[in-house]
Write a structure and sequence with these properties.
By secondary structure, the chain is an alpha/beta fold. The protein has helices at about 15-30, 40-45, 55-85, 100-110, 130-140, 165-180, 195-210, 225-240, 260-265; strands spanning about 5-10, 30-40, 95-100, 115, 145-150, 160, 185-190, 215-220, 240-245, 275. A 10-stranded mixed beta sheet has the order 3-2-1-4-5-10-9-6-7-8, with helices on both faces. α7 (about 195-210) links the parallel β7 and β8 (about 215-220).
Length: about 280
Amino acid sequence: MLKRILLLLGETAASQTARAIAFRLTRDTGAALAGLAGIDRTALAMPSLGRAGTGALKVRLEQDLRVQAEDLRQRLHACHEAECAAQGIPFECLAFEGEPLAALQVAAETRDLVVAGHDTGFHGGDEVPLPDLLARLLARTPRPFLVCGDDPPEGEDVVVGYDASIPAMRALQLFALTGLGQGRRVKVVCVDQSQEEATRRAGGAVSYLASHGLVVEAVPVISRAAPSEALRLEVANLKAGLLVMGSYGHAGWRDLLFGSTTRKLAENPPCPLFVYH
């Protein structure tokens, strides 16, 4: 069961969805909740303008970005504190200034689950996509992430995207052990060109989840289409409230840590995405 949750703070629609889900999980499970806001110094560095007399302008622009980033961090801190007070939840907020990957790794080591919007960033101005940072973080910390899209989930059912890979098996186990599937219908979707292979893989996952007391159904999908599209369709049909995945779909060495299918879904999740490597 969940005991400690880390919420990556932001101001986008996806970050608001993440915040609502994190607070709901905290209320439902009694887990402690910590918010994290920080400043990515590398994102504040302006490239050299390459002309005489432009050094002062570069310094001034970087100072302006630094002020914007600090203002954002303070707003996020205050908003998180107010929300905790309103919901009667103990307030905890972490802060960093430096390299986000190192800071997130340290913060995640003492938490069971990290909740974030798909576009969470750590600098002033426009937010940046999370998947590249998430891919590197998943390779360096043994914690699952819950990546949220712009819109709140419509329902409570769970879709598990499963390909019987080692990352998929690990994600399945963490999902079962966190208790996030208790009291919810679960469908295991396996996309493959072979009926036999899709049925076999889905059946193995169903057997495992059923042993943990979950209500689960196998959905083998025979298709040559991209698994990400098949999973999006299943999420939409079911109005699912959670999509569970490991590093589904390896298209080459570049995707070995994350999975091409998982990456596509993390860029714009159709519902909260529970992902673990």
